[in-house]
Amino acid sequence: MTRNSADSGFGQSPLHLFHRAVQVVTEIYQAEMADHDLTARQYAVLFALAHADGLSQSKLVDATGIDRSTMADIVRRMLKKGIIQRKRDKDDARAYEVKITDEGTRLFKAVAPIVQRIEEKLLSALNGKRVDDFLDSLALIVSVSPPPAAATGNGQLPAALEARK
Burial code of 99-110, b = ≥16 C-beta within 10 A, e = fewer? Predict the structure, then answer.
């Protein structure tokens, strides 16, 4: 069964509901994390590095779903904060290896319970199996999306990806 937003009204439009969900997530995240000067994307980078330290920026793009140019900006900002460090990869002089610093580890450990509380707050309207179904549905939507580097900026898939559909 598919929903046609034109037939079901704006309040049932998947696009509108996703937009509103992002607004809710952003508002809650910003309120809860106000004292920590850490964006959601920066947290995603810290999370990835806390679980697999020493990743290249390309691997961070893959791990987080953040596009390359945004990742470069995030890495620069996190370097200035002293929560990550970056050095040339010894095996590939074109690539950088990114590692979490001691300060980054302290920050990650401090905010992890806050992020857990945010997630619990976001999922509180659901219960039991509905939570699992919701998370499975989100994972499915994300899994069929093109990788960040594949975005063209005009809402179209690159021709190579379009041909695979």
Answer: ebbeebeebbee
